[in-house]
Structure formats: C-alpha cells, structure tokens
Fold GRIP domain-containing protein.
Amino acid sequence: MKTEHSTAVQSKARSALSSASEHEAIVARLEAKLRQSEAEYRSARSAKRDAEAEKLRAQLASLRKMLKESHRVLSHLMKQERRGGAPQAELAVTRRDLERQQGLNAVYLKNEHIRLARVLGTVLSFSPEETAKVEARIAEYSESWWGGPASLLRDSQADGYAGLTGSLTETITALPTALSSWFWGGGTAAPAATSRYLLLNNKDATNA
C-alpha cells in the first residue's frame, strides 16, 4: 500500500516538473519573439526617420541649385542694367520678379533647414542638452533672419552663393562637424550608425 502511494506521489511530481518545464519553454519562446518584435520595430522606426531625413536633404539640394541659378540670372541682369544693354523698364520688371522669387526661395530654404536640423536630432538621438543647444541656435536663427532679397544679394556678391551658405552655416554651429558636413551636402548619404560616435567625439574635441 505504501509502495503504491509512493509511486503515485512520484508520478505526480514528475508530471508537475514536466509541466513546469513546458511552461518555461513557452515563456522563453514568447520572450524571444518579443525581443525580435521590439528589434524589428526599432529598425523600422529608424529606417523611416532616415528616409525622411534623406528626402529633406534632397529637397534642400534642389532648392540650393534653384537659388544659385536665380542669383546668376539676376546678377547678369544687374550688369546689363548698369551697362544700358536692355530697356530699363523691362530689366526693372524682370529684376523685381527674380528678387521676389529668390526671397520666397530663401524663406523656404530657411524653414527646411530648421526642420532638417530637428529631424536629424531625432535620428541621431541627441541628448537633452544637445537638443536644447540646437533649439537655441534655431531661435536665434529665426529672429535674425535676413532683411530681404537685397541684403541676401549684398552678402552673396563674393561668389554668388557664399554669403547664403555662410549665413546658414553660422546659425547651425551647435551641430557637430560630422553632422554639419552631411547637412550641407558634403556627404552622399544619410548618417550611418557610426554618426553618433563621431558626433560625440567631435563634441568632446570642441569642449577640450
């Protein structure tokens, strides 16, 4: 009788152990799936942010070309006007149209640069201190925007474009060198996974 009771107890114990092992295996599989899902989610979000940043950068590159060309045409017309090579009334109308268009392009360019700076800050996981620094520069940038197309032209006389890019670059000086190079078209693709490492190193070098 005791032997039968002992056998029954042992059988129940083995069954309980087997059930616990099965449950542990199920939990382990679910945890593995959860980790995989989280990794895929983070990857998808990162890819989406990178795609948005790259799209903005392409738009900025296109707009920079438009600004450069409009400035070239406007400079040519101004030379003709000084030389008297075309009717004054016609030149005046064309010049006003080009200056108006260039002014609109410049404002749009400013807004896109601000948007891109914020997107890149998210993509590259800026710290709260870095984000605050960038936002402070953006605020300063917005408050001290150019007085109009005429001042833009005066600043750009050296090479037709240096004044524009110089003014914008100075307002984003809070961005580290690695980001600034990509931001102004120095690279050919969006920042890679090593950008964060480079940014932190550049920041440390600046503070040294």
User: Anything to note?
Assistant: Confidence is low (pLDDT under 50) at residues 145-208. The CA atoms of residues 21 and 139 lie 60 Å apart. Helices lie at 2-83, 88-123, 128-143, 149-155, 162-171, 177-183, 195-207.
